[in-house]
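Example record for the data management plan.
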Amino acid sequence: MTIVCIIRYQIDPFQRDAFKEYAENWGRIIPRCGGHLVGYFLPCEGTNDVGWALIAFESLAAYEAYRARLKTDPDARANFAMAQSKRCILREERNFVEVVDGAFEIPSTIAAKSVPVEAAR
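Corresponding structural encoding:
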C-alpha cells in the first residue's frame, strides 16, 4: 500500500520567497531520507497564504523511519531552522491518504503541445 502525506502550510504571504527556498531545499533532502517527493506547491491565484507538499511512502512504518532520519540529517535540521528564523510558516497540518491503485501518477494521453503556461491559464 502506498500512502501520501499531504502537508498544508499556512504561510506568511510576505515570506513567499522564504517558503519557496524552504520547499526547494526539500527537493534534495526528502528523497535522500526515504520519501518520494511528489511536489511542493506555492499559492498562485486565489488564497495567497496556503502552500502544499505531497510526499509518498510505502507505509506508515516507512514514514516513521523517514521522520527519524530527518531528525538526524544536518540539511533537514538547517532547513527547519531557516523556516523558523524567517517565520515563513505560520501553521502546518498533516493528513495521510491511501493511494487508489490505478489512479495515481497517470500521465495525460493527449499529445503534448508547446503551449506556454500563461496561455493555458
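Summary line stored alongside the record: The CA atoms of residues 1 and 112 lie 31 Å apart.
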